[in-house]
Structures are given as structure tokens and as C-alpha cells.
Design brief:
- It is built from nine helices and two strands, in the order H-H-H-H-H-H-H-H-H-E-E.
- It is mostly helical and 151 residues long.
- It has one domain: Leucine-rich Repeat Variant.
- Strands 1-2 form a two-stranded antiparallel ribbon.
- The radius of gyration is 15 Å and the shape is globular.
- The chain starts with a helix and ends with a strand.
Length: 151
Amino acid sequence: MPLICRKLDLIRNTWGCYGWVISQVVTHVVGALAELSSDVNARNTLRTSGALEPLILLLNMTHPPLLRNTAKALTQLAADPQCTPFLEELDVMRLLWSQLKSEDADVQAEAAWALCPCITNATVRTIQWNLGYTSKTGLKNLDVELRGTYK
């Protein structure tokens, strides 16, 4: 499994060269990581092998199935208190929050599910987001403040 994790960064970097084929491969690899991340040992391996950063960087892609699988994996990882500090350091909540603006309803749903354990296990005292206007929700300049406790 660590080999797969190390290859995520290589695949992400070669995405532009191979387009659709790479997107399908990466989507399936991340889907497998999402399934594996339900196991504590697999989560520890992902955390210690440095796979969290390349996984989170995939949230910057635009392929909806990949975004869904990435959010599924992050849902499992965010539920693990040992992974939470790494996820916060890599700004995963902001990236997941931006997925709520996606055109794909399934991407939105997976991002929302992934945000739940991120917020629940947050180690920061206050998390603030300034939500701009979105045509889907009709929200204008809404400040949302979520208060967490130190774990």
C-alpha cells in the first residue's frame, strides 16, 4: 500500500500528459484507498507514508468521480484523531468546503459527509468561513462560526 500512496503524487503530476486514462486510473486508486482507509492500520500507513498531502491535493482536480472518491477517503481519515492535525495543517476543510459549490450533487454530498468528522475532531478553537453568494443556495455574505473544543 505505501507504494500506491507514493505513486499518487507521480500520477497527479502526469495528469495533464495522459488526460482521461490517468483520470480513470487515479479515480480507481483513490476509490481503493477510500475502502482501505476504513481500517486503522491502513489509516496509520497512509498518515506515516506521506500520502495525505497528495490525496488532499487531488481535491483541486475537476473530475467528479475522483472528487467523490477523495472525499470518501477523507471522511474515513478525518474520523481518526491521529490524522486530524495533519488534515488541519493541509487545510482540508477549506478544500472540502469549496467542493460544496460543485455542479455535481454527489460531489457536494461526499464533501459534506467529509466535513462532518473534520469539524467534530477539529483541534482549533474557532473555525470561520465566509460564504460568498452561490446561485445554488442563495447565500450572501453569510459568516458561519463553528466552535470546537481542544481534544
